[in-house]
Amino acid sequence: MLAGVAVLAASVGGAVVSTGHQPGVDTVVSTAASSSLSGPGALAGTSKAADANLVDGRSTVVSRSGGSREATAEGTSTKLVEKAEDAAKARNQALAALGKAAEKQSARIKANLWVSPLASYRLSAGFGQTSYLWSTVHTGLDMSAPSGTPILSAARGVVTEVGYDGSYGNKTVVTLEDGTELWYCHQTSYAVTVGETVTPGEVIGYVGSTGNSTGPHLHIEVRPGAGDPVDPVAAFQAHGITL
Question: Domain of 132: which CATH number?
């Protein structure tokens, strides 16, 4: 009878522990049973899994994952904003540089424009005409105007001569950047001196009747490369001015 109980206990619990020594009956302690007792037992309701906080574990994982995504998104957004700001800054700098270049070019063009030497006048003699008034053909263009009318520099250049010159009377010579000379003759008085840089429209003298002249007028000559004179009407027209 006792042997049967022991067998039943062994089959259920995995071990038999005798509470008292029965004569003729050995005490049986199973190694497997001993190991089973030291670990969790299904019947005893003990399990290491019970010590794990599965809910908290899952929450922690989700929380970390969400935080990482949010941090990544925030970092990406910040980088995009920085790139956009850098691009805008570069664009503004490029536009500013372009604007300055345009201003310089505009100023350069304006500085090299030609203007009429008189605001109001009447053409009284053309280039190449012949008359007893001149020893040779007429070498310039005569623009009649009241005495004292301001004479304007027709183009940008440097004043290279100011003084009386025989039949030309009081004469001012302005040499342009390309070497062209503009002669302004028969002036009653001067408004510039040698070495000055003059700009288009700047007053350089006043209409007079000095030298070989029959009345107040401006005799203007255009001499490319300081050489022989050319027709002032054609020269001015080439620079957009109709005399």
Answer: 2.70.70.10
